Amino acid sequence: MSHLLEINNLDVKFDTDEGRITAIENVSLTLDQGKVLGIVGESGSGKSVTAKSIMQLNPGNTIYNENAEIIIDDENVIKFTSKNDLKKIRGGKVSMIFQEPMASFAPAIKIGHQMVEQLMLHKTMGKGEAKNISIDMLNRVGIADAEKRFNQYAFELSGGMRQRAMIAMALSTMPKLLLADEPTTALDVTIQAQVINLMKDIIKEFNMGVIFITHDLGVIAQVADDVAVMYLGSVVERGPVNDILKNPKHPYTRGLLNALPDINNLDAPLKPIPGNIPSPLDRPTGCVFRTRCPDPTHECKEGSIEMGLIEVSPGHWVDQCCVNCG
Amino acid sequence: MLCELWLSMSENILSVNNLSVSFDYQENFLSKKQKIKAVNNINFKIKKGSFFGLVGESGSGKTTLGRAILGANKVSEGNVIFHDDERDFDLTSITAKEMKEYRKKAQLIFQDPYAALSPRMTVRDIIAEPLEVMRITNSREETDARVRDIAAKCRLNLEHLRRFPHAFSGGQRQRISIARALVSNPKFIVADESVAALDVSIQADILNLLKQLQQELNLTYLFISHDLSVVAHVCDIVAVMYLGHIVEMAPSRELFSNPRHSYTKALLSSIPSIDPEKKSKAIELQGEIPSAMNPPSGCVFRTRCPNPTHDCKEGHIEMGLIEVSPNHWVDQCCVNCG
Amino acid sequence: MEISSKKKEAYYTATQMQLVRTRFFGNKSAMIAGSILLFMIVCSLFSGFLSPYDPTIAGRDKDYENGAPQIPIFWDENGFSPRPFLHTLTKYRGADTNFRWVYKTDTEKRRYVYFFVKGWEYKFFNYSINLPGKALDFKIPGIAFETHLFGVDEGGIHIFGTDKAGKDLFSRTLSAIYISLAVGTLGVFISFVLSLIIGGISGYYGGWIDSLLQMFTDAIRTVPPIPLFMCLAAFAPLEWSSELRFFFISCLLGLISWPTLARRVRTHLLSERSQEYILAAQLCGASSTHIIARHLLPSFTSYIIVDLVISFPYMLLSETALSFIGLGLREPVNSLGVLLQNATKADVLLNYQWYFIPVFFLVVLILTFVYVGDGLRDAADPHKTK
Predict the structure, then answer these.
(1) Cross-chain residue pair C23–A17, CB shorter than 8 Å
(2) Above 80 in pLDDT, residue B279?
């Protein structure tokens, strides 16, 4: 059974003035067609870096490891270097939606023009056909008066509409894989609800694979089928969303759930995770979570346990270190 | 008898009466000047020692309201009265000397921990600045002692005081911001989206810290946020704002279990639930938030209300809060509609 | 790569200036350029000590006009000498040279080079400004010295050759570098003061004051600089002393180039002014003076230093250009432009190529300033992406 996307053993390091910083280490993920994989993490967890690696959008000082594999449709895209090859993935098979909708559109060019230009880059079609597809897409994402909006500039649309327009632009090339990097974080909560409903409908209709990156566990619960929890560059727990949220095995996942204010249980105190997220310059050796784990074993504290995911129940993988600790 | 009267009079720390704040807006040099009413006819009182929450989305006017209370924005109509132990401060007719006193008693914690700290001052200098500017202390030793004291309460140790902001994470910077706000011994703190920019695990930490400091130092908070779950957990009383008006105000338990206004109901249903089996049925509001330059007449919410009465749709009903149950106030229009 | 905790603590407690300095020291090209620049500045400051001859007419060598450079050597066919020496040259004109004066080398007679010799008198710290009107005359008598780094007992030693009048080009070059740098410094200083005031008021207060001052600034900027220079320089009467002329040219340069710097100051101020920490200070009741002194000024000190260093080469070039066309400094005052002016004749190109040596120094001076300025800018703004 071949997956739509397979990431194996991905390491990403950045060469900076302060030295070589490890952004992500030994990340392995799979995604099937028609499913949504949620990646959850806080700042410094490396979730954006992972998504950008799929499209090779990381800055010039990035170093990938030799045996890393990112396989989309049986091709290892991380080895692609030529512009033609990269064009196949960027905007072709894979599309990306970003957090800041204002940053996705060029401010001095009309939205319609950008959508059409994007379509013509990736598919061979005339301008007229591209325009029709774009307007149709704008309609489908729920923008009223699509023809009028097609001829407007980005600043003339509100935040929610801009985000929908960005989704329309990303989907117009019919990608197989959609990367959504915090698409609802900058939106008001009522607009967020609308956009989440929209995305759920579209995913069902287009049967795409989606990687949904966010720090909001509530959004993950509503949208994702599987979830991977990342901390400081490593995947610490992975599995079906029901399992992970109802039955978390890793102390970090548990800590995240405890720290969340639950509107249905106003009496429960908020329990923060003790300590601070270490800076990427200070990445702990061995298990990255050992500096904040509430109950580490002695060997773990020394940093001698290697990280690695083991399957504790069907489909539910946890980092081996914390199976013993937490 | 007199004592009781005096006590009940000083129960409120802040009274806001018919407050409006308008801004002038001129698109370019030659176009007409327009007035935007960011805050429109707001009435509420904050009790001493409470944790008052102000919730709203973008464009609701909550930040403008918070800053107007501190004197950073000019009040156009109505007044804001701060009831201190010795005297009252009326912000519309305050003298420069009184303003200096007021500043010692009311402070602001900002949203963005990265922009709120001067990058070229040490943490010790940042925290000490209010003391120096307001001439609260007389000598360097006294300043240092007070800085150390408040830093310890915010869990910052001596090493931290010598460092510069670039050495700290978001949560730590927010603690420095809090320490700076508290060093002048204020009685009233406006926390403007103070946890919005923080990671979830750090957010809980800062909220606990705020609660702890409230008990230790006898503070009253005005907590502005867009995040309902956070507000539900920490606040006693919550007011919901929409386009410059307060549409509902109630104790937080009451508000979240029994919302009366359609907007509040929509907001609450939009919060995604952590339980994946409970797929949320968000009440979808039609349309977008209207522009503040051209708000709907009558009830501002009528353009998005899922079930407006005929009078309301015409814009005939005036807005105004009425008490539907003890301490639970709703805008009169939507008592009939929603 | 493990970073020790001491280093980390140093990073945490480093002020902005220290961080900038550390980053600058790590930039190889900037450090090399900086060392060369420092070397040249020091040499120019000690030009009196290093020049064997007076760069003015008073120090000319009548026996060696238009002479080629004389490089001291350690070794010739007569053997090795630990003390460097020069061969003697005699002037000779004859039929075989087309009756042009040439110099014949006599390899038998050696003239040894001695160090720390006594020579012409030069002064440190002497300034005299003769402005019109007696009240503004200003004179500081300096400290006189007579020692020079090297010299010969007989004849002359001209490392870069001599010009038409016999003036030593090495001494002239050194003093020219000093004068050019001095004019540049004064010009930058005037421009800096003006732009701080105008840009500062504009940026801090904003509103209509800003619009008004910006209109004024733009008006000055739109005037083309070269015709403006030429007009104003032509106004300087010929009878003015060379020091007065020097002062005048520097002021002119400063007055023409302040708009660019003022605009930068204003931009920095406008962007910093809306930062939240400024609002925090205002909410404490801080006065404008306090905010400017404690928050705004330190925030753009590093940028202003970078701007100043980068505007230096433009000053140098402007002064050189002015002097080159004859409107700036003139004989007897040396500047690189004056020296370059002598190099414009075809005769020079064919026969006296050593006249071009000052060009090399001008190019090196400007390039080092540019590299140092770039290095400083990279060090001050670490958020650039590669």
Answers:
(1) yes
(2) no
Q: How confident is the model at residue C385 (pLDDT cuts 50, 70, 90)?
A: very low
Contact C125, C140 (CB under 8 A): yes
**CA–CA distance, C293 with C288 (Å, rounded to integer):** 8
Q: In this complex, is the C-beta atom of B34 within 8 Å of any C-beta atom belonging to chain C?
A: no
Q: Tell me how far apart the alpha carbons of residues C278 and B120 are, in angstroms, rounded to a whole number.
A: 12
* Crossing angle of the two packed helices B262-270 and A189-206, in degrees rounded to 10: 50
Number of domains in chain B: 1
Token look-up 């003022």 returns: C262
User: Is C25 or C123 the better-scoring residue by pLDDT?
Assistant: C25
Smallest Cβ–Cβ distance between C11 and the set B72, B159, B167 belongs to: B167
pLDDT tens figures, A247-260: 888 888 888 888 88
Q: Cβ(C277)–Cβ(B117) under 8 Å?
A: yes
Please classify residue C107 by burial: count the beta carbons closer than 10 Å to its beta carbon, then call 0-12 exposed, 13-18 middle and 19+ buried.
exposed
CB A116 within 8 A of CB A74: no
Closest CA to C152 of C168, C129, C136: C168
Instruction: Note whether A65 contacts C: Cβ–Cβ < 8 A.
Output: no
| C386 closest CB neighbour out of A19, A59, A281 | A59
A neighbours by CB contacts (3+ pairs under 8 Å): B, C
User: Do the Cβ atoms of B273 and A222 come within 8 Å?
Assistant: yes
Cα separation, B327 vs B322, whole angstroms: 10
Q: B68 CA to chain A: closest CA distance, Å? A: 23
- Tell me the count of A-C CB pairs closer than 8 A: 12
B232 pLDDT above the threshold of 80:
yes
Residue of C26, C382, C385 with shortest CB distance to A59 = C385
| Best of B129, B182, B190 to mutate (most C CBs within 10 Å, chain C) | B129
pTM, whole model, 2 decimals? 0.77
Least Cα separation, residue A60 to chain C (angstroms): 7
Q: Does C26 touch chain A (CB under 8 A)?
A: yes
Q: Any chain B CB within 8 A of the CB of A247?
A: no
In the sheet that C73-76 helps form, which strands lie side by side, from edge to edge? C73-76, C79-92, C102-124, C143-152
- Residue B250 forms part of a structural domain: yes
CATH code of B190's domain: 3.40.50.300
How close C1 comes to chain A (CA, Å)? 7
Residue C126's identity, in one-letter code, is: N
Query: Within a domain: residue B2?
Result: no
- Yes or no: say if A163 and A101 are a contact pair by the CB < 8 Å rule: yes
Identify the chains in contact with C, defined as 3+ C-beta pairs within 8 A: A, B
CB-based contact B332:B319 (threshold 8 Å): yes
Residue C65: CB atoms within 10 Å: 16
- Determine the structural domain holding residue B285 and report its residue range: 12-337
Cα A164 to Cα C184: distance, rounded to the nearest angstrom: 57
Q: Which of C16, C285, C299 sits opposite B100 (nearest CB)?
A: C285
- Residue at B104 is within a domain: yes
Question: What ipTM was predicted for this assembly?
Answer: 0.79
C-alpha triplet B61, B229, A267: angle, nearest 5°: 135
Whether residue B187 lies inside any domain: the answer is yes
Confidence tier at B26 by pLDDT (50, 70, 90) = low
- Select the more confidently predicted residue: A293 or C1: A293
Tokens, residue C65: 């006009």
Q: What is the pLDDT of residue B189?
A: 93
Asked if B167 is an interface residue toward chain C (Cβ–Cβ < 8 A), one would say yes
Residues of chain C in contact with residue B116, where contact means CB-CB under 8 angstroms, are 276-277, 280
Element (H, E) at A240: strand A234-240
Cβ contacts of residue B249 below 8 Å, gap of 6+?
B44, B237, B238, B239, B240, B255, B321, B328, B329
